[in-house]
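User: I'm preparing a small set of examples for a lab meeting where we compare how different chains pack in three dimensions. I only have the primary sequence for this one, and I'd like the structure in token form so I can line it up with the others. Please keep the answer compact; I'll paste it straight into my notes.
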Amino acid sequence: MLTRVVKIGGHELDRPDWVAACARALVKLGPSVVVHGGGQAVSAWSRRLGLPVEQRDGLRVTTPEIAQLVEMVLGGPVNRLLVSALRAAGLDALGLSGVDGGLLTAQPLQNGTALGEVGEIVNVRASLLHSLLLAGLTPVVAPVAPSVTAPVRPLNVNADQAAAAIAAALEAQELLFVSDVPGVTIEGVTQPTLAAAEIETMIEGGVATGGMAAKLRAAAQALRAGVRAVRIGDLDMFEHATAGTRLLAVPPASAVQPA
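Assistant: Understood. Below is the structure token output for the 259-residue chain.
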């Protein structure tokens, strides 16, 4: 089955009109797995509860208390918001978190002690997602995963990285990172293509920072793992195959060949 993985950004989830438009667009896409963020909601609840809000290189610094909060917020109201919107648009959506059915397992980030309870995906139960897709369901995944080692505890996983791992496990036709920006911009110009080999240079040079840096690294991870195509952009990507910025595993060949 040809499948797409769609990662929906957390900032846009605070905009009901955008969420509804995204849901309507997803109806036309074919079999898809949706992975969502929700950082804005987590930050808002952290402030309400007097917990610190801090990020480094686009990743949230996650104390054990914040890890529990992330699990509650992403697996609860944020996930239900998306499931409700997709069902209203006509998709038979089903909400999941990484712990459901052993869907995801993670290990703490290597050299990530400064980030606290932050993990990276080490296993995806792809057979579960395939079964749901074959049944006509649209899985909606909150990127929280239990640790693979004892003591088992929830780890906060970057949604972009979770989407890349899921796309790789499914051997997805395409991975789409969807937000309200048309693509990756350099000096104000949206780039139609970007070579994965350029990503670290862009990050080191300050061209890509914060959340975009994490997104680009996840895109490169997906390409290395065999995902056929990766694009970053807005809702136009659902309608047009050339919309957004397409990430390339290798740079395009030069139009001018050496003599």
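A couple of notes for your slides: Residues 114 and 155 are 14 Å apart (CA to CA). The helical segments are 16-27, 39-48, 64-89, 126-134, 159-170, 199-204, 210-224.

User: Perfect, thanks.
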